[in-house]
Amino acid sequence: MTRRKESILEAAAILFARKGFNETSMSEVSKISGVAQGTIFYHFKSKEGLLLAILEDLKTRVLEAFEEFYRNENFSCGLEMVEGAIAFYLDLASRLEDRFMVLHRHISYELALQNPGCRRCMEAIFDCFVDIFEQAIGQGQTDGSIVALPPKKAALILHTMVDGLVRLETYQLYEASSLYEELLELCRRMLANTVSTE
Q1: How far is the first Cα of the chain from the last one, in angstroms, to the nearest whole number?
Q2: Spans in the chain with pLDDT lower than 70
């Protein structure tokens, strides 16, 4: 991606996240990015196209970040892997706060209902999140650290809990970091295999 396109995406993500999609004008994106409006339209065709590009960029960043995370981390068991994935998810949401806020805004879901490309992108993002937890749960069931339960359903519930905290933090309704230890404890209680394997 060119530096110019990156500047446009960064400016648009900040504005869409903080002001909202409908309240942001393309002239504001132009002013903040330092790129002419005509150039923005040349690259992204429309404001909706720009929103879709932000979501696509988030998908790429999430996939790359978690691939690197799993490549560089060693876990003693699946339960530890779940805990690591939770911590990393919360850290990633903090580092990509504006993009997560765009993802969580209602306009993204409205666009997904009308635009098949946006729907595929949103599904891919959430599938990635759920797959990360499902992979860890599957590993834990293989090594005996996690109880037998449907991995996909457990991963969906786990993602919902973690993403719910991210939303509280994103919209400054509650300091989610203060709930981190409680979140981990609840996940351990929900998932841990406490039956002796001897």
Answers
A1: 54
A2: 1, 196-198
d(CA 32, CA 15): 9
User: pLDDT tens digits for 120-175?
Assistant: 989 999 998 999 899 999 999 999 999 999 999 999 999 999 999 988 887 777 77
Query: If DSSP states are collapsed to H, E and C, what string results for 13-48?
Result: HHHHHHCCCCCCCHHHHHHHHCCCHHHHHHHHCCHH
The domain segmentation of the chain, as residue ranges, is 49-191
CATH number for the region 49-191 comes to 1.10.357.10
Give the pLDDT score at 1.
67
